[in-house]
Design goal:
168 residues; mainly alpha; Butyryl-CoA Dehydrogenase, subunit A, domain 3; 2 domains; 6 helices; 76% helix
Length: 168
C-alpha cells in the first residue's frame, strides 16, 4: 500500500483550512455569545474594562470612559513630574490631546458616526504612542509616566478594536 504524496499534501492543506475556519468560527461564536473583547489585542484588559457589557456600543462607551478616567489620572501624575523631566511635557500635551479625542469619540458613538469614531480613537492611540516613544529614552527605567502611557495605549487599542463592531 503506497501513499500518494499529492493526496497527503492536499490532505494537509484541507486540514489547515479546516483549522483556520474553526478558529474563525470559535471567535464568531464567542462574539455571538456576548464577548465583544474577542476582537481586542488585549482581551484580558478589555474584559476587565468593559465589566461584562455585551452590547458593543455600550461596551465601547464604557471602555472609552474608563480610558478617559485613567488618562485624567496619568495627566495628574505628569503634571507633578513635568518639573523633573522635560520629556514629560510632551506626554502631558499628548494626554490632553487624547482626552479631547476621547470626548469626541463618545459623541461619535451617540451620533452613530463610526468613521469619525475610528479617526478619534486612532488619534488618541497615536497620542499615547508618542508619549511612550518620547519617554523611552529616559534614564529612569521605572518611569511611571512611561508605564501609564503603555497601559493607556493598550486600552486605546482595545477601544479601537471594539469600535469596529459598533452598529451604525
Amino acid at each position: 500500500m503506497s501513499i500518494n504524496p499529492h493526496m497527503n499534501f492536499l490532505g494537509t492543506i484541507f486540514l489547515l483550512l479546516l483549522l483556520a475556519a474553526s478558529s474563525q468560527s470559535a471567535a464568531a461564536l464567542k462574539l455571538s455569545l456576548g464577548d465583544p473583547c474577542t476582537v481586542a489585542d488585549f482581551p484580558g484588559l478589555c474584559r476587565g474594562t468593559i465589566k461584562g457589557q455585551t452590547n458593543v456600543n455600550a461596551a465601547t462607551d464604557v471602555a472609552i470612559r474608563e480610558l478617559m478616567k485613567r488618562t485624567r489620572h496619568a495627566r495628574d501624575i505628569a503634571k507633578k513630574e513635568v518639573k523633573r523631566d522635560g520629556k514629560v511635557a510632551t506626554c502631558l500635551s499628548n494626554f490632553n490631546s487624547a482626552f479631547d479625542n476621547l470626548e469626541k469619540a463618545l459623541n461619535n458613538i451617540k451620533e452613530n458616526d463610526g468613521f469619525s469614531l475610528n479617526i478619534n480613537l486612532s488619534a488618541a492611540l497615536t497620542d499615547y504612542d508618542t508619549c511612550s516613544e518620547t519617554m523611552k529614552g529616559t534614564l529612569e527605567i521605572n518611569n511611571v509616566v512611561y508605564k501609564s502611557a503603555g497601559v493607556l495605549y493598550q486600552m486605546a487599542d482595545n477601544c479601537l478594536a471594539l469600535s469596529t463592531l459598533v452598529k451604525q
